[in-house]
From TrEMBL:
Pfam families per the UniProt record, alphabetical: Ectoine_synth
UniProt pathway annotation: Amine and polyamine biosynthesis; ectoine biosynthesis; L-ectoine from L-aspartate 4-semialdehyde: step 3/3
EC number: 4.2.1.108
Record function comment: Catalyzes the circularization of gamma-N-acetyl-alpha,gamma-diaminobutyric acid (ADABA) to ectoine (1,4,5,6-tetrahydro-2-methyl-4-pyrimidine carboxylic acid), which is an excellent osmoprotectant.
Reaction it catalyzes: (2S)-4-acetamido-2-aminobutanoate = L-ectoine + H2O
Protein family: Belongs to the ectoine synthase family.
Keyword Calcium: no
Stored NCBIfam families: PRK13290.1
Protein name: L-ectoine synthase
First-tier enzyme category under EC: lyase
Record keywords, A-Z: Lyase
InterPro entries registered for this protein in UniProt: Ectoine_synth, RmlC-like_jellyroll, RmlC_Cupin_sf
Amino acid sequence: MLVKTLSDVLGTPDHATGDAFESRRILLARDGLGYSFHDTVVKAGSTQHLHYKNHIEANYCIEGKGEVENAVTGETWPLEPGVMYVLNEHDPHIIRAETDLRFICIFTPALSGQETHDADGSYAAPCNSE
């Protein structure tokens, strides 16, 4: 059995922060589960253009208010507690945070925790060694 707490991650290299986000990476590829699990905050007033070309991501909103836009179709959906969106077709998307948004996120394949967003908002394909 694997047991972790959010406090195990805060202040460690698995706690990534940027101008528009905070990602607490609770489970990563090194945990050997085939997916990674994140507690993510998108900061109020921010807009993020993202496109995960090599990963499927599921996001379940547990706090806040904002919207997600499909960058191809322009279709938008409100984000608030209880809403899930899944980027099951590697959808380029835009997140707009009216207030701080907090998500529980799952990535497959699992992230290593060392990824950084490319200029187009994506992560590189994972290495087979992860």
